[in-house]
Amino acid sequence: MDVSTVELQWWILAVLLYGVGDYVTTVLAVRRADVIEANPAVVALLSDQPGPVGFGLLKGGALVVCFLGFLAISESPIAIGVPVGIALLGGLVTLSNAAMIVRTD
């Protein structure tokens, strides 16, 4: 269950992009009356304009579940794909949200 330095770096990037970046840009975007959440899972669990507390708990919970899944397969050579995938997804949705914010200004 050792986490390598490279894996740790990817997890930090994943938390920054998916956890912080997506959280901040989503909360800022859905505060606008004309912007709604596009993720159907978030809409089903929270609403089309999720509040910051509920959305933060959902993001944190998702990261915990992903990290536990990573730990379960940490000996596998594909384990690094978990934080890499989360970081890439986080970067994509953060950029998409930021573009939405800029467009609606």
TrEMBL record:
Keyword Transferase: no
Domain of life: Archaea
TM region positions: 12-30, 51-72, 78-102
Short name of one Pfam family: DUF5658
Domain DUF5658: 13-102
Keywords: Membrane, Transmembrane, Transmembrane helix
Protein name, entry field: DUF5658 domain-containing protein
Native source species: Halohasta litorea
